[in-house]
Amino acid sequence: xxxxxxxxxxxxxxxxxxxxxxxxxxxxxxxxxxxxxxxxxxxxxxxxxxxxxxxxxxxxxxxxxxxxxxxxxxxxxxxxxxxxxxxxxxxxxxxxxxxxxxxxxxxxxxxxxxxxxxxxxxxxxxxxxxxxxxxxxxxxxxxxxxxxxxxxxxxxxxxx
Length: 160
Description:
single chain
């Protein structure tokens, strides 16, 4: 199913600007024969000081640059991203997802997928807790076993 560029750009922009129903939008890949300054760009909503902002993270080979944009600024930034030659655009919302793939001929192939169970809430936290295997506050069982075997070594979590 081929679409005009304005059609898919308008639909992507509407979904991103939907605010709290947006989970994330990912722009990735490059169209053949084109160059991009980034490998991937992720846009997601965050709540900062009670106000809704959009966090835009640009990833290249070495680092990522993250900036937050207010509601009046994000439309222009998304327009800039849509003007770049990204090959794949994935927009995930609480009710479904929109996938856009740009072919070699420049046609846009769209696929909309509804979510089986709509999300009740979207995580809008700005500073998310990293998911770690071991948390810093909990004494790990292997540390305690090591401490029992080596009496000269005390785990940091047990030091006064």
